[in-house]
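S2.1 Query sequence (Sulfur relay protein TusB)
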Amino acid sequence: MLHTVKDSPLNHHTLAQALRYMEAGDRLLLWQDAVIAVAAPAWQARLQPLAEAGGLYVMQEDLQARGLHAALGQPLTMAELVALVAELGSPQAW
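Output structure tokens follow.
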């Protein structure tokens, strides 16, 4: 299953909640304000295992809009996201 998180992990608990409910083989997409998690050291440590397993995606446009680069995870374009959703089915939005 693909989980999507859009809220900043500095202001909301949605990323922590999504990580708690993820099962083996699930994937996570960070987009909108959630992309700042890849630049926050505390969140980098929590996301590292998921990134190493190939299960972490980050919206490239949202990174660019915030002046960030993907320290973790695989950057996705909107077209790549559409293809991923077609492959995995409807995502669980947090």
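The helical segments are 14-21, 41-52, 60-65, 78-88. The chain has a mean pLDDT of 94.
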